[in-house]
């Protein structure tokens, strides 16, 4: 059995070993029981992209002491902008490296700012935060909404596991039947909720609705605020944004996803066949394969197949639906010699689906189902 599958590989960015990049480092100090940044202390620091947390902490400490002779004492701790200690990528077990952090946060090295503080200040801050969290006499807000908006741009959002959505953890909180379970879920998801600015001490189960609403507002809007503003700035070229606001329904089909199911007729019209010369023996085989193709699409549409029309399109083009702007290049059908393969093949970069030439529809359908079901498609990795 021969199968061909074309995949786009995600390009790895970040510095290669031996390269050096500029980042920024600053100082945090304990003030009123909270770690706060010290203004005027941010300095540029030249580091290797593969530097780990220990190497970065030592370099930042040396940089600070070089430029501030009044900076004494130690040891020092390396911190994220929200005051948490840097050991791993937040929310994961992946050890911290500068290039991993840059990859996940999606920023240029020059826009990354990290901090150091004395171990004594960090320990005192952690003790006070823990003491306040365990107190049942007052409600403790770990982060204000303003801080959450700050972190939407400047704090790393953890990398999600395969198949996991950022809203998956909100459902158990919304459905928690008691305040005890709600409190347990808050602690379990504290890293996520702190990043969103909605981690707090809860006294009643009714508070879960507000917590979920605050989290979803952050996840959908504030977390993507920078991208949304840049998109709007691009639309403002030639006053396009103004025209779009005045006539919002004009470009709705192009800008908004519509969950429309594919039909067999649409799929048949979408793929244009490339036939051999008229009158040749191969042309007769190809026309028979085209009739099998039309019947196969109808079976997929009527759920009489283990494969859906969306999976057929995904196998052939790498997308499960036709984009609003159409497809380029236009999808095409080609035909395989029986000596080449009896299973379908695809070139997703060129939107080409290659059909096997078989004697019976039963064999054609079985081989199409097997080939598509056993080939990893885009979005299935």
Automatic annotation (TrEMBL):
This is G2/M phase-specific E3 ubiquitin-protein ligase-like isoform X2. Pfam families: HECT (PF00632). The active site is at 349 (glycyl thioester intermediate). SUPFAM superfamilies: Hect, E3 ligase catalytic domain. InterPro entries: HECT_dom, Hect_E3_ubiquitin_ligase. Keywords: Transferase, Ubl conjugation pathway. It comes from the Eukaryota. The gene is LOC117548989. Residues 312-381 form the HECT domain. GO terms for molecular function: ubiquitin-protein transferase activity.
């Amino acid at each position: 059995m021969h199968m061909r599958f074309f995949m786009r590989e995600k390009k790895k960015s970040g510095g290669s070993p031996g390269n050096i990049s500029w980042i920024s480092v600053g100082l945090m100090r304990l003030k009123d029981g909270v770690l706060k940044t010290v203004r005027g202390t941010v300095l540029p620091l030249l580091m290797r992209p593969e530097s780990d947390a220990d190497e970065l902490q030592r370099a930042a400490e040396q940089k600070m002491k070089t430029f501030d002779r009044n900076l004494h004492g130690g040891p020092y701790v390396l911190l994220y902008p929200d005051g948490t200690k840097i050991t791993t990528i937040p929310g994961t077990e992946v050890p911290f490296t500068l290039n991993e952090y840059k990859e996940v946060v999606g920023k240029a090295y020059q826009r990354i700012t990290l901090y150091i503080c004395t171990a004594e200040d960090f320990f005192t801050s952690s003790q006070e935060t823990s003491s306040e969290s365990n107190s049942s006499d007052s409600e403790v807000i770990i982060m204000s909404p303003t801080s959450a908006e700050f972190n939407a741009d400047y704090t790393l959002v953890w990398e999600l596991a395969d198949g996991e959505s950022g809203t998956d953890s909100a459902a158990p909180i919304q459905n928690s039947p008691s305040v005890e379970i709600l409190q347990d879920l808050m602690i379990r998801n504290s890293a996520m909720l702190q990043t969103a600015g909605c981690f707090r001490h809860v006294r009643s189960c009714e508070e879960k609705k507000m917590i979920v609403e605050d989290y979803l507002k952050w996840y959908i809007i504030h977390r993507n605020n920078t991208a949304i503003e840049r998109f709007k700035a691009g639309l403002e070229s030639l006053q396009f944004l103004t025209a779009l606001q005045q006539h919002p329904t004009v470009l709705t089909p192009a800008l908004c996803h519509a969950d429309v199911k594919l039909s067999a007729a649409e799929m048949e019209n979408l793929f244009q066949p490339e036939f051999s010369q008229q009158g040749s023996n191969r042309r007769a085989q190809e026309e028979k394969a085209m009739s099998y193709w039309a019947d196969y699409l109808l079976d997929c549409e009527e759920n009489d197949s283990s494969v859906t029309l969306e999976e057929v399109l995904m196998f052939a083009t790498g997308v499960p639906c036709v984009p609003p702007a159409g497809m380029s290049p236009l999808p095409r059908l080609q035909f395989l010699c029986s000596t080449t393969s009896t299973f379908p093949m695809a070139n997703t970069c060129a939107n080409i689906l290659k059909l096997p030439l078989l004697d019976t529809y039963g064999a054609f359908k079985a081989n199409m189902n097997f080939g598509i079901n056993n080939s990893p498609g885009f979005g299935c990795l």
